[in-house]
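Thyroid peroxidase: structure tokens wanted.
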Amino acid sequence: MRKPVVVAIKLVVLCAGVLLPFILRGRGLLWGSSGKARVLSVLEASVRTVDRAVYTSLGRSLRKRDITSPSELLSFSKLPEPAGRALSRAAEIMEASIQALGLTQLQLPPDVSSEDVLNMIANLSGCLPYMQPPRCPNTCLANKYRLITGACNNRDHPTWGASNTALARWLPPAYEDGFSQPRGWNPSLLYHGFPLPPVREVTQKVIQVPNEAVTEDAQYSDFLTVWGQYIGHDMALTPQSTAGADCQLTCENRSPCFPIQLPADAPQGPRCLPFSRSAAACGSGTRGALLVNLSAAATRQQVNALTSFLDASTVYGSSAAAERFLRDWAGAAGRLRVNTRHRDAGRALLPFTPLHAPAACAPAPGAPHAARAPCFLAGDGRASEVPALAALHTLWLREHNRLAAALGALNPHWSADTVYQEARKVVGALHQIITLRDYSPRILGPDAFRQHVGPYEGYDPTVNPTVSNVFATAAFRFGHAAIHPLARRLDTAFKDDPDLPPLLLGDAFFSPWRLIGEGGVDPILRGLLARPAKVPVPEQLMNEELTERLFVLSTPGSLDLASLNLQRGRDHGLPGYNAWRELCGLPPLQTPTDLHGAVSNRSVVDRILALYKHGDNVDVWLGGLSEDFLPGARTGPLFACIIGKQMKALRDGDRFWWENSPVFTEAQRRELGKHSLSRVICDNSGLSHVPRDAFRVGRFPQDFESCEHIPSLDLEAWRETFLQDDRCSSPDKVENGDFMHCEDSGKQVLVYSCHHGYELHGQEQVTCTPNGWDAQPPVCKDVDECADPVLPPCHPSAHCRNTRGSFQCLCTDPYVLAEDARTCVDSGRLPRASWVSLALGALLVGVLAGITWTVICRWMHCPAKSTLPVTEGDAKVPPRPECRMCQEAAAQDLEQGQAHGSQIPLCM
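Answer:
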């Protein structure tokens, strides 16, 4: 789906580039022609510069169709949906324009404010729609189901928690120039009298340990770590900037590149690890002093491409475009798409990414060099990172489809969309329950959980649920230090399987073929349940698989996850360690004695201070990770505070939280409260025995229970009965559409929706009044999908033909449709027209040969017969045989020539 989007955006930008100067120059602007011309020229130049970089980057990936380096693989995994890419592009254009105007020292007339300039740039760059609040639908349905983008959850603050909005700031950012430059951008700049240490040096001297240095958890299973990684991908994704310099080719700090410098004594090779800064939010990262009368300034903010809420966006996506692509419109009602090429012991697997998208995943051993290696397609683009993540994504895909089938059978009057939304609502609730009830108390410890989270007291519209920058960039990345260097897969007896030995993590990155061809999901789930997690103790923070072999497929080079985390914190302007301790009411740690009070391992403290020299200089991710655990926790006091504060905000600030009384009925909440991750595993895998608590490590069989004894949902609580109101007759069925019942302020409401491929014309909802229904039902009309210029349904290689309720992608011979039914691929045979052409060509050649043969022979035959001898010198020889028609001459002349040795004329 990426290449059509790129092509469509190119066309839009091309038109904009051609028409924009003429449109703007014909409008009455706010100031004189000289200022106007300068602003317009700067804006046009910014558009060209940004688009050239964006399309060069995307085009390079599309041309190569594979990922050649670990840093490119990282960029690919963080590539946002089309809406996110459009936002990133607009922000880059706005920032480049403002910076360029500052360099020109533009003087504005007295009656023109800097705000006018910014509004104009925001509008023309495409930023303005993202800087304004969205329009929220005020329907019964909008109060029943959350929007896929997370917008309008809070009626007074509709962007809180929505996708493609800026991460929240709990403290002012720390940038070297006060606006955008990260800490460490200028190596000569001193902090408390000392330069910041290079992050790669911090990794090598404090964080990195050999793969064998693992302290295994005596209480918790590896499922605890993987759930943290999975749920982190439900809350935050900061896309990388794609404009400016190519960060694969430079070791200089040139926007958007902030490369990780390698130590001088590093082995011969590259001098740095590539690093691209996170994309900025629209209007942020601009300097007030750039424009002479421009007082407005905004520090650089980073975009979260996902919804902040615990809403299972890992399953359903965070944009309407992603959701449309994930749903199964052609198959069973309300379900999600599944893989059509592979099954896992009869169970569904995740579908593949489109064939025309860049391939990021490793091919199976023995596959041809040119063979494509598609990744799994899920609500989050990182689903294929490691087999455990892919298994968890697969589990929830199956759970949605299981619920959709059961709910549809229970309520046959429900439309496909109602089935989908109700199943989605249940899956989202289960994500919330598992995370807040089962996961968070084990990470924070019981005391810190009571202090920072506490019991649920209802929805609070004054609480901002937006994920904070420090949570996404530092605190919740504590789990990276808990990642085991081995991926363990077990047999049906929960023992090591000789056919599926443990995998070093470096051999498992982006390898979906392992899940498909090496036993499926079940061996991975057994390993997560029955093998202990790694304890992130300060002296064993991160193994070599993550610091030396991150995202290594078959190409040279690697990345370092620890250095990436440290550099990302500086890129995002996170203040130092002590600033966050003060926010949480903890005393700052300045001296070695102070630090020893929080980090009991003296060797770790000494190594940290040897590098940073001052407690305030320590990066928050390293400082929080090094603290001693709280009782019963897997984090220290700082990260327990930040994570707890964030979890409370995500719960209390979510209008659709499962415990909020209008969201589910009392009977439904009671059933949901009985459910568990163990039950989800039972319902969607081949495992017949599981621990009652999936996060508690146990030995098989004594610590495992039969799935028959694990409580499950009684979906009878979701059976809908419609109480007929005598004042309103039974609603009419809408052709190519459905309706669902809803209740609004005690009134009976019908909310109509159209089948996929149709759009609603008329009033979406009708209400029962004393005089009957207050409006006529709407009608559903066919949508011409082929006319969509932004997201065309077919790949450019195919021709789109609109059909009733759908569309059809057609290919010209000899091309045929690929598995995605949208892309044309070579069939490997000659086109039918070629066979016809060959036949006609052969016939033509034959005809021409015959004509040529006949004409030449006629031209060469002798006009009269002669019987006189011919004189050659002094001798007389018999007369030469005459030329006749070739047909009759052939035999006769041959006989005569053989009889008396005379020459035979060549009739050709």
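The chain has five domains: 2-157+279-300, 199-236+308-366+373-652, 737-783, 786-826, 861-908. Residues 861-908 form one domain.

Cheers.
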